[in-house]
Known about the structure:
- This protein is mainly alpha-helical.
- Helices cover 74% and strands 4% of the residues.
- It has helices spanning 2-30, 39-83, 91-123, 131-162, 166-189, 202-215, 251-256, 259-274, 277-297, 301-306, 313-353, 356-369, 378-384, 390-396, 400-406; strands at 196-198, 222-225, 236-239, 246-250.
- A 4-stranded mixed β-sheet has the order 1-2-4-3.
- A hairpin with a 6-residue loop joins strand 3 and strand 4.
- Helix 9 packs antiparallel against helix 11.
- The longest helix is centred in the first third of the chain and has 45 residues, at 39-83.
- The N and C termini lie far apart (56 Å).
Amino acid sequence: MYFILFYGLFLTLPKMILSIIQLNFLKTQREKKPYILDSESFKKAANYAIIKEKISLLSTFVDFGLLIVWILFGLQTLQTFLVSFFPANSLLGSTAFVLIFLLIQSLCSLPIGAYQTLIIDKKFGFAKGGIKLFIFDSIKSFLLLIILGGILIYLFTWIIANVPAWEFYAFIVGAVLIVATNLLYPTLIAPMFNKFTTLQNEDLKGAIQSLLTQVGFRSNGVFVMDASRRDGRLNAYFGGIGKSKRVILFDTLLEKIPKDSILAVLGHELGHFKHNDIYKMMGLVLLFLFVLLLLIANLPQSLFAEANLTQSPHSIIVFLLLLSAPIGFYFIPIIGYFSRKNEYNADSFGAKLTSNEALANALLLLVKENNSFPLSHKIYLHFYYTHPPLMERLIALNCEHLALKETK
């Protein structure tokens, strides 16, 4: 029961308290004078944020309930079931144990994800795809988990079973995996879910290429993603590292944002590239992974005994996955702090490439079109926000006066 108590006190309870604080804040702010957005958009964004937070609160309860089931009898039942198919502590048996654990976790989160996407996001005008697309996406995700996840779990299981001081070698494998994911995502993984076509607007393409040349950014193309097939929100990003770097524009962005604002958004993203922000964030993630592996490698046998398991490779990996949530919860504010600093620096860089006003207008358009509520409780912000509040970004750009126009 000690692990359940630890999980509840250090993750479930704090998350519930933060959600309740944020919900009360949102409900209070919703009734006040509109801020940045016009009255109708302000209330709509507040309502969307409130519903999302309620779903998050429900998800926290479900996760804790599932953890209790796993610790009290779920993990032991799964192990007993697999013994009839695989020899005790075999590599294939251990891989199957972790893989089934992950599949059950994913299946249990599926109903909440479906409700968020198919009902709430559709109600607020975001979700464009129907249940058929959601099912196909889910099947693809499960297949990726089974194939790629199975290979990686087998590898980690072998390392834990056969290598002394396994945590250091597991860290090396994890580091390679993180780099490989960033390298392959735009060319291998993302195309499994979305269609990417080269930008046809020659005028915009030339302006973007001029911007890239000015900064010294080499990419293998400017691509348009069919985001509108699933969602109505706007975005743009640079995907990949090294030679796999791509400029990705959502088709929704091209439909609703003028050319100068698109260039301002890309200028901001180029600021992340110029400041090596992706590598800084990867470094923080690797630090978290290293700390997590050290903790897992030194867990007492009594912890595994709570779940009626021995300290075997598959039980170590499962507890690594379970402990990543409470430990990550207290590591996320550190990542968030540096991420918000990076956003300010990227804003400054992007504004120099275009103009302060162009970037400020682009940020205002993104907030309005994405139905983002511009306010948050400070405590909640420090735990969950990777971007600074919009008004603070506008003040840093000396463009806070533009926000006042929106409320009139």
